[in-house]
Amino acid sequence: MTNEELEGMNDEQRAAWMASLNADETLILHCPAGYRFNLVAVSYLKRVLATRQMTIGDQLEFLEALNGMVDERFTTEGLALVKPADDISAQMIEEARKLDADDPTLSRSFDVLTSWEVFGNLVRLNPTIMGAMKACGLGGWQTACGSA
Amino acid sequence: VTTLPNPTANQVPQRKPRRRKPRRVFNKLAEPLPAVDGTDWGPAMKALPSDRHRAFVLALYQIKPGYGAHVRAAQIAGFGTSSSSSKSWSVIASRLAHDERILAAVYEEDQKRIRASAPRAVRALAHFIEEPEHRDHARAIGMVLDRVHPVETTHHVKVDHSHKHQIVATEKVLERIRQLALAAGLNPQALPPTIDGTCEEITDERPAT
User: Fold this and answer.
1) Alpha-carbon distances, residue B167 vs B83, B177, B199 (angstroms)
2) Contact B35/A at CB under 8 A
3) CA dist B112 → B56, B137, B159 (Å)
């Protein structure tokens, strides 16, 4: 399902589509966009840390930023579960980042990376993101309460 | 036909009393400003040309502020004459009020008086703490304190710190990196080796051959 197709749906079509989703897809659908972005950022930061040589100051700064994403929902356990992004995922993220140009708010890349289509593909390429979502109950209120 | 005699016909016409132009009296201070032991004028007050100017500055603190205050202060200080018109008074007052020396003296006196009122403001602040419903009271106190202790309360120095700290690979830093990496699920041993020094951008300029 592409972003364009989703936007073109009316309420009935959308309700039918939501009813057809499996458990994992429902989890993605109900995961807040902020957490989606954080999960993508975690995977990308881990890739950068694991593959690029940098000064010890940069390394410390990146690691501090990585650990700073933890909160009461997205726990350290979830952070540890996410594996570094692979080549294709990294390329997708870097292409999305180019949309921001000099915008420090990253609003364009945020919209793209957290969209149903792109985030869904990133989860398929890096299933540990789904694992972290399940471990932390990031699929919305229902899953956080353990009812779904 | 009898005509009635005119009673005033033979009288000498009375002269209209000549109105004398009132003599113009220059105002002056009743007496020079008294010198009080233990006090002294500040440099700006001292620099004023006369006691009348100093009196004008002091009068500004005695009269009710508002429309006509400068004129009243000028009158108290002994400027003008007994026959000065309203227009003259406004000119005199305006010149005085905009004189740089007067302005400097007013500023100096402001500082002295506000500082002198600081203990009262502090005391009122203590009172306010006991009665927090007095909002306006607190604002006024804050204004006074801001002026009395500008360094402590309103002097914010903004420093743009463009220098980037260089982190040295001490045992403590390495241990912190190890802990953070483990917490994030990364193997600290598998991280690429760090590079030392600072990076410089090198432009690809080759000499023409």
Assistant:
1) 81, 12, 14
2) no
3) 17, 22, 31
DSSP three-state, residue B195: strand
Backbone dihedral region of A140: left (phi > 0), alpha (psi from -120 to 50 degrees) or beta? left
Cβ-contact B116, B92 below 8 angstroms = no
Which letter does DSSP use for residue A2 in this model?
A: -
Q: Using DSSP, how many helices (H) and how many strands (E) does chain B show?
A: 9, 0
The answer to whether B25 touches B81, Cβ cutoff 8 Å, is: yes
- When pLDDT is cut at 50, 70 and 90, the band that residue B108 belongs to is confident
Q: Which helix (H) or strand (E) holds A6?
A: helix A3-7
**ipTM confidence score:** 0.81
Is residue B38 within 8 angstroms of chain A, CB to CB? no
Please report the number of interchain residue pairs, chain A to chain B, with beta-carbon separation below 8 angstroms.
Answer: 65
Return d(Cα B25, Cα B21) in angstroms, integer: 12
For every residue of B153-185, DSSP letters joined together read: HT-PPP----PPPPPP--HHHHHHHHHHHHHTT
pLDDT tens-digit profile of A14-40?
888 888 988 889 888 888 888 899 899
Q: Which residues 46-65 of A have a C-beta within 8 angstroms of B? A: 46, 49-57, 59-60, 63-64
- Between A49, A53, A54, which is nearest B186 by CB? A49
- Predicted model pTM: 0.50
Give the residue on A whose Cα is nearest the Cα of B196: A55
What's chain B's average pLDDT?
A: 73
Taking the Cβ of residue B190 and every Cβ of chain A, the question of whether any pair is shorter than 8 Å is answered with yes
